[in-house]
Amino acid sequence: MSVLEVRELTIALPPGSDRKEAASKVSFAVDRGEIVCLVGESGSGKSVIAQAIMGLLPRTLAITGGAALLEGEDTARASPERLRELRAARMSMIFQEPMTALNPVMRCGDQLDEVLVEHAKLSAQERRAKILDTVREVLLPEPERMIASYPHQLSGGQRQRIMIAMALILDPVLLIADEPTTALDVTTQAQILALIRALQARHGTGVLFITHDFGVVAEIAHRVAVLRLGQLVELGTRDEVLKQPRHDYTRMLIAAVPTLQPHGRKVDERSPMVLETRNLGKTYVDRSWLARRREVPAAKGVSLTVRRGQTLGIVGESGSGKSTVARCIVRLIDPSAGEIRVHDIDIAALSHRALRPYRRRVQIVFQDPYRSLNPRRTVGEAIIEGPLNQGVPRPQALERARRLMELVRMDAASLERYPHQFSGGQRQRICIARALATEPELLVADEAVSALDVSVQAQVLALLEEIRTRLQLAMLFITHDLRVAAQICDHIAVMSRGEVVEYGPAEDVFSAPKHEYTRALFAAAPGRGFVFGSA
Amino acid sequence: MDAPGLKQYEALSVEAAAVRRHETMWQRLHRSWSVRLGGTALVVLVIIALAAPWLGTVDPSLFDAGSRDLLPGKAGEITTLEGDTLQHKFLMGSDSFGRDIYSRVIYGTRVSLIVGLFTALVALAFGIAFGLSAGYLRWLDGILMRVMDGVMAIPAILIAIALVALWGASLATVIAAIAVPEIPRVTRLVRSLVLTIREEPYVEAAIALGTPTLKIMFGHILPNTIAPLIVQGTFICANGILIEAILSFLGVGLPPDIPTWGNIMAEGRVQFIEFPHNVFFPGVFLAVTVLAVNILGDGLRDTLDPKMAKRV
Asked: Where are the alpha helices (DSSP H) in A410-451?
């Protein structure tokens, strides 16, 4: 018998939503010892299904049909008391953000203990022994210290291990993992994925793994269910779905996953230099009256060059200093050392007033499309802001905006509308148009496609490529995603702990990484070595 | 990106299928019953204030020794400034000078609404100016906020009494006296909003586009603080109306010849046991007005400021 059987589950959305149902007649099953990946883009209803199984649906959503059977018992209609008994004991869940899923004012050990107190009749000593065992099982170093720590004292990966320990301490038959590695760095992600796989194999747990990342799917899934707008479009084994997708939507998604192979475009090394940083450094100084002066180097000795018509990628994990470098180059923060030469003018030390005429040359596109546009200004106002600052008369600026909208493949009528009327991908196109409006020579993209769904990401990447060739723009592309970097970059700089550890043509870096850290990073890339689709 | 399928399947993307439907702010406001209730009550009060001379009132400063302490509904006489004697029905009775309480309460609506509106405007104007400066210009922050802390340390009613004593009682001083203690609260609110908004990528994008600082402060940051400020404004307005009544009641507000709800209640206080109507009617108006403004404020908060709203 299956551990979990979801049978024609239908969940209604409140009236006035963009569609009627969050999930429509979704059916799939998870067997003992099996990992089923529920894949879909944002808004596909994958998290809602998980919430319905756990009995955690928000009040505004109602189950209108079907059932979710946990070992034959319908959890979608169970009473709150019964659900409380089932949760943790028979089914448990881990979440994307371990920091918010753990109680910040309780020691990790006490949070684990709470689960045992509620569900198991054990003495205090037995509970403690069990907690230590479980913490050891999720491979946390120094278990004693871990259970005495508060969540904020642990790293993201350690917190997620605590979450996993909490979910598995009562040995449930079903584990639901809702994007458990999305907030983690790629090397940590690889460890957590390995851990989940090892634990479920040892205990025979059925796992429902929710993700949007096909690399992760390739890494962990036995079977895959693909959701689109609340409908299950494809269900099959990993190899069936990833290598011979039957449904158009699955095929489109898989075609949109960038490969880890660098694109191998010819690079003209004589092209004129647009940006050159020499020994760029940024140190944050923590000054206060009473405490000692503390210095935190965020970036040091960064020397990079970007040539006309070429893309330099900076890759690294969170805290590696890649965004610091980008923000220094755009001069959103002031560098504390080194030079930033844009066409032989050092802008590193210019005052903000003196810098203003040079601002137009370097423009930036940010990660979060929902926060990058002022919600109270029309798209047109946003795009002409730069040209107006340069003294371009309003009619000409608007004309330029219209041409740019065409360039980013959007309707000129969009200029009159407000940002909330657009989707994330459209907003990112608008942000690109805004950055291009000042006719920059260098475009900095700071994780510009990281927040987008894979199909939208592919569209925006294609757009950036087209713009780079057409305008012969120099691009600085900051990303944590090696697939995206391989897709778009001519040169790659790998950063770790504020320093560039490896720097060279993308081909060389990808085919023969020299630095140990680069090799570790590549080894951790999910789905590495898996060949997607046969198209 | 030369996957041939990509263009072809672009329409299949979940994002392309999402229909974006958004209610405008007005539609959302209209749906909230507290906005409608509070708004309607306030509109009625404004109409009463504007139409005061045509609502069967007499000049609120007229008195007639023969019509002292009449109970509500009694008819009597009142002498105009020209010396003519009019027959008048005292709907809410008369006070110990023989003045018509109904006329005084209706005219008092004008004072209360003006005081409420202008204290809110004055407090918001200064609070926005200080809060924007403190939040965006970091060097000013320390000094400005410590001054604000100092002002906050003095009880509001004490500042108001001191200022009225200093400048003499007039509408303008009363408004200023009520607004000044509110300024630090608005400043703190605006500053905290500015501190989060200044970190938003769209502000950074404006910096990168070379937009001058003043334009960023007033063009990008200020418009995004408006929703919570409108909400705060309604609460200041309600509070202002209350404080004005308190000041008048204590005898440190507007001079007793100006009809305000507080003045009427202050005069009626000594006779409260025998003639409670002196205090009752202005009290009801005061309570209804403050309630209406507060209900409106609650509704505005729930619709304009979803972060503060209780989740369904």
From this structure: 424-436
